[in-house]
Amino acid sequence: MSMNTYLKGRLRNTALLRSQGLMPLYEAVVNAIQAIADSDNAEGGDIRIEVLRSPQQQLLEDARQRRGAPPQEPIVGFRIIDNGVGFDERNMSSFETLDSDYKAALGCRGVGRLLWLKAFEAVKVLSIFRSSDGSLRQRSFAFTPAHGVTAQVMADAPPNARPKTTIELCGFDKPYREASPKTAATIAQNVFEHCLWYFVREGGAPVISVVDGDEVIDLHEVYAAYMLSSSTKERIKLKGQEFELTHLRLKAGADRQHFLAWCAAGRVVEKEPLGGRISGLHGRIKDPDGDFHYACYITSAYLDGHVRPERIGFDIEAISDDLFSASELGIDEIRDAVVACAGQHLRDHLETNAKASRDRVERFVSERAPRYRPILNRIEPTRLSVDPDISDRDLDLLLHRHLADIEGSLLAEGHEMMNLGDAESPAQYQVRLQRYLEKVDDIKKSDLANYVFHRKIILDILEKAISVGANGRYAREDLIHDLIMPMRKTSDEVFSDGSNLWLIDERLAFHNFLASDRPLSSMPITGSIDAKEPDLCALNVFDQPLLVNEGQKLPLGSIVVVEIKRPMRNDARAGEDRDPIEQALGYLERIREGGVKTARGRPIPGSDTIPGFCYVIADLTSTVRHRCKVLGLRETSDKQGYFGFNDNFRVYIEVISFDRLLNAARERNRAFFDRLGLPTS
Q1: Among candidates 277, 245, 405, which has minimal Cα distance to 350?
Q2: If DSSP codes are grouped into helix, strand and coil, which group holds residue 46?
Q3: Which of 127, 296, 537, 567 could bridge across to 165 with cysteines, CB 3.0–4.6 Å?
Q4: What is the model's pLDDT at position 401?
Q5: CB-based burial of residue 147 (10 Å sphere; 0-12 exposed, 13-18 middle, 19+ buried)?
Q6: Which residues have C-beta within 8 Å of that of residue 592, sequence separation ≥ 6?
Q7: Keywords in UniProt for this one (predicted)?
């Protein structure tokens, strides 16, 4: 029974992405290679690809109106000329039969010419071939979406003619044209990469050249510039199906990457990046003969039989652990086997790269991001295989994604931990619970490591801030102030991890209210109408005490005032405006006189007697030392500070030099730094 075919309908149902506008050209070139293979041409095969561009007149007129070199004419088509067997009776019959099985043994599906009409308005063919009686004949015809094969003319070949076929792809559709390469060099590169298998196969490829006006590019010269060394072939068998792997070393280039090329019918169907699949395979591979990128071309009768008609993919399913997994071959199984072979082929080169990759991760975690150390052993080594030249930013993002994945799985697993499985014994549940708790412990360690490393960074910043700059000047006090606590903020506006009060005293983290560089009148804890602004003011008092007997007063807390001065400032003298110690005492006195309240505005009985603590952060210049002595403060044993209690103000006073502040904070955190392998200085 015969069935009619509606060509326009077939074209409508034929897929071709806009980015694949050169696919029709590839089809014509591969057909030419196969036609040469079918011929008995003793002189050798020759294929000429001519780039056809629109007339220059309009472009020259446009160029007169603008500066610079004239623009390149848009491509309107291609002409492919070969000296193969040509459109003899068998080939013509196959051409006129959609889904022909004439070249099925080569993996051809008989639909490649449909791609011509997806991206081009028409195709013109002129072919000189040898007929069955040995004479040379000439055939010409057109191929269009509306009428299929038309205007077919048969005649005797001209005198002294030789077999030759010219295929002209006319009227490059604008969407495909705009998304396709524009220069002869790029077109030649793309044709070569698509047909690379023919160059590395036994017997090689015919002479192929790309001609664009006066520019002629020989693809064998492209091959010489592309390849570092000869190819290596390997055969593997999976569930009875044989696959041939062609291992290639391509000369390293800035825009190249390692890849797998899945082939069918001698054409590249899909390219798949290999990055991240093989440990140590990153960037260019170092070799005494020259740096290179790796590529593996995969060919098989199995792939030929499962390629989609348009040759833009395969219909091989991913086989999971089901009834068919033992007998059917899935794409993942093929890929895993090929990747394993590729890794084995490159093993000598990858050991050095893998070590450099591990060292890069280890160095980054040790020096920049120790928070990730507890989870490193929970990430598969292949997923930690990175380019040794990866930036800190990209590596941090990668490790953060792994941490997020682990936290996500931990959350899901936590819900499952709530229930004992139907067939699970208490002992099995205990083992599962223990594994879960170990993972939780690693995440908590990661959080702690992140916090400790944050402290290390803050100390490093502080050390730099108190050092003399390149301009011979010291940093302003507001820079150091912001480092300890953001200026003009209160504890209601800043999260606990947004300040670094631990630099002064760990206990300052536990406060009921804290204000930074805010007028006393704006603080609900003071009741003062004074506009003066202490650097830091904190109240430690419980607003809603628990388990308090009826009639019990609010427990006493404390008022803390911190005053920060510019490093190496040496102008302290008597008077509240010039003495930082008197300044802090003045703030304390005003707060008490205003009647201290809780952060919620409730009065505190006996607020004028609440203990006070005044901290002055300043370098111990000669004038500052003199003021400390005048006020009766004692010098610390390390000569880096002064302290004492003032009975009249009922306040503990401590003057801390920047060096003492930095060293004391480092000492308090030394145990944590040592645990993480961080230097303390």
Answers
A1: 277
A2: strand
A3: 127
A4: 87
A5: exposed
A6: 559, 607, 608, 610, 612
A7: ATP-binding, Nucleotide-binding
| Three-state SS at 495 | coil
Integer Cα distance of 455 and 529 in angstroms: 37
Contact (Cβ atoms closer than 8 angstroms) between residue 270 and residue 314: yes
- d(CA 567, CA 560) in angstroms, rounded, equals 22
Phi-psi domain of 226 (left: phi exceeds 0; alpha: psi -120 through 50; beta: other) = alpha
From the list 278, 451, 408, 433, the residue with the least C-alpha distance to 354 is: 278
CA 543 to chain centroid, in Å, comes to 49
Residue 365 phi, psi dihedral angles, 5° rounding = -65, -40
At a CB cut-off of 8 Å and minimum separation 6, what does 183 contact?
72, 212
Output the CA–CA distances (angstroms, integers) from residue 508 to 86, 441, 483, 491, in the order listed: 90, 28, 15, 11
Tokens 């993480």 found at: 676
- Cα radius of gyration rounded to whole Å, the chain: 40
CB 522 within 8 A of CB 537: no
Can you tell me the distance from the alpha carbon of 295 to that of 539, in angstroms, rounded to the nearest whole number?
68
Q: Residue 307 carries which DSSP code?
A: B
Q: Are 152 and 74 in contact (CB under 8 A)?
A: no
* Confidence (pLDDT) at 184: 94
Write down the pLDDT at residue 264: 85
What does the block give as tokens for 366?
């040790």
Alpha helices by DSSP H, 120-195:
174-178, 184-194
Taking alpha carbons only, the member of 199, 212, 191, 343 closest to residue 281 is 343
Alpha-carbon gap, residue 370 to 63, rounded angstroms = 60
| Tokens standing for residue 474 | 């010291």
The CA distance from 450 to 403, in Å, is: 12
pLDDT for the residue numbered 441? 65
Query: Which domains are assigned to the chain?
Result: 7-224 (3.30.565.10), 232-345 (no CATH), 365-451 (no CATH), 477-544+554-670 (no CATH)
User: Is residue 436 a contact partner of residue 412, using CB atoms and an 8 Å limit?
Assistant: no
Which residues in the chain come in under a pLDDT of 50?
1-3, 107, 323, 495, 520, 523, 525-526, 539-556, 599
What is the DSSP secondary-structure string of 358-423?
HHHHHHHHHHT-GGGGGGGGGS-GGGG---TT--HHHHHHHHHHHHHHHHHHHHHHHHHTTS--TT
Q: Considering Cα of 480, then 484, then 490, then 493, what sign does the dihedral take?
A: positive
Q: What amino acid is encoded at 216 in this protein?
A: V
Residues 6 or more apart in contact with residue 408 via CB below 8 angstroms = none
Q: Specify the pLDDT at position 490.
A: 62
Q: How many other C-beta atoms are found inside a 10 Å radius of the C-beta of residue 676?
A: 17
The alpha helices in 70-164, defined as continuous H runs, are 89-95, 112-119
Question: Measuring CA to CA, which residue among 609, 607, 613 is closest to residue 594?
Answer: 607
pLDDT at 336: 92
Residue matched to tokens 């002294």: 160
pLDDT, tens digit (0-9, with 9 covering 90-100), for 104-134: 555 455 567 888 999 999 999 999 999 988 8
Q: What is the pLDDT of residue 473?
A: 74
